[in-house]
């Protein structure tokens, strides 16, 4: 990998590892629905003009049905439940729970017969599930059950989204899909935002959190990610999935004083090991992966 490739890789590992920290800060002062609205509005205002200038919006018209489905399962629903869950869970624990997304993706691939599970991948699923069980058993109390269920919805949505991309949006321009999905989500959240937006400016830390989530973690993130794909290819680019949880845990511990517990330590090792094994491709497996002219399946935070 070139020096530029490493720099882009490290940048994405950080950029998609920090949302949990800023979501945690933002939901102390904003409702989950208003946070989603503000984040998607600002990001859409940045990306829509770029997508329009590149001519990537008009080609989306034939794909409007799968685009709506993708928007719902990848942005509109997960971002709401992620924010709600972080009202109760720590940012580090939230980031680690979402490290299990590849496990859900592997199960989805097996269920839809797109992929197959050999003994190694089945072992990976078992190890990953044991890691999630360790997190739930060691770090979560009975009062956190609803938050865990919300995170399960987020994980399923983030796993189904790439499947929709690969199966139904493979010929659509990538930046156009991202920009349009953000704009659609903004429209969806206008009604609750009108009711729930604060009547006065929230504290500075909340404003900064929203701006970082919208500008850095969404708009800039996708632009950098597409550059990363150009530089190192789509397969290597997806390895950042295993870097993000470590960043989330470190930031939560350092900046929010969140505890680094035995549950997090055990869960981190088991979930990442299980995910790596469960998503390892077998020689007979052929999985559609799209380059910068199409789409690369990867969860968005």
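^ structure tokens above, recovered residues below v
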């Amino acid at each position: 990998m070139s020096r530029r490739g490493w720099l882009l890789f490290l940048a994405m590992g950080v950029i998609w590892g920090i949302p949990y920290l800023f979501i945690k800060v933002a939901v102390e002062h904003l409702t989950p629905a208003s946070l989603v609205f503000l984040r998607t509005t600002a990001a859409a205002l940045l990306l829509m003009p770029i997508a329009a200038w590149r001519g990537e919006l008009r080609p989306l018209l034939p794909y409007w049905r799968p685009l709506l489905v993708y928007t719902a399962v990848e942005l509109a629903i997960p971002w709401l439940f992620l924010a709600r869950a972080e009202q109760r869970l720590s940012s580090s624990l939230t980031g680690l729970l979402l490290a299990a997304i590849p496990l859900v993706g592997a199960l989805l691939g097996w269920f839809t017969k797109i992929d197959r599970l050999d003994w190694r991948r089945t072992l990976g699923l078992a190890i990953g599930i044991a890691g999630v069980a360790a997190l739930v058993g060691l770090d979560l109390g009975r009062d956190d059950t609803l938050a865990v269920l919300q995170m399960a919805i987020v994980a399923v949505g983030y796993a189904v989204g790439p499947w929709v991309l690969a199966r139904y949006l493979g010929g659509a321009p990538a930046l156009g899909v991202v920009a349009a999905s953000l704009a659609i989500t903004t429209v969806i959240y206008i009604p609750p935002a009108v009711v729930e937006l604060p009547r006065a400016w929230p504290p500075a830390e909340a404003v900064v959190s929203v701006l970082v989530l919208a500008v850095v973690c969404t708009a800039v993130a996708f632009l950098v990610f597409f550059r990363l794909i150009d530089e190192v290819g789509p397969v290597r680019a997806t390895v950042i999935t295993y870097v993000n949880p470590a960043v989330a845990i470190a930031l939560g511990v350092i900046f929010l004083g969140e505890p680094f517990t035995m549950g997090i330590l055990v869960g981190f090792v088991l979930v990442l090991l299980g995910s790596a094994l469960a998503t390892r491709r077998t020689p007979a497996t052929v999985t559609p992966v799209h380059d910068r002219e199409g789409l690369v399946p990867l969860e968005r935070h």
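The chain has one domain: 3-278.
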